[in-house]
Amino acid sequence: MKEMVIEKNRTLNWVGKIHAVSLFVAALGILILYFSGVPGFPLIPPGPIILGIAGILVFTLASRWKWIPFISVLAGLFISFGTIIEGSIWGRLTNISDFAPFVGTLIQGLGLVVAVITGLIVLAKAFRPIETV
């Protein structure tokens, strides 16, 4: 009969590190948009703060608390849906001549896609029980 044991002393693997870095990359993309003067941003944009805190939580706590990636995946999805609902992403991605908004949007989008995918992988690994014989 096989026992199911949950691993206690996990370290953040390479997928978790990519997940955390991609959250920071997405935050950097938003900051590029903000500092390049894209209209519609509040005085202090919440996106980089949300993604930055999520990335810090993943780097510092994900190896100890397996539910931390839930927060980071939710943060990535929240910012992604907000970006899509806001709607100007499509105009910025098709206007390459306006370079800074194009690059910022591209960096933000790629960071968010990678963050959500790798976050789901981290979650799947965190909640997978280890079988012992």
From TrEMBL:
> Taxonomically, which superkingdom?
Bacteria
TM spans (from-to): 12-35, 41-61, 68-90, 102-124
Keyword line = Membrane, Transmembrane, Transmembrane helix
Protein name according to UniProt: Uncharacterized protein
Q: What is the lineage of its organism?
A: Bacteria, Bacillati, Bacillota, Bacilli, Bacillales
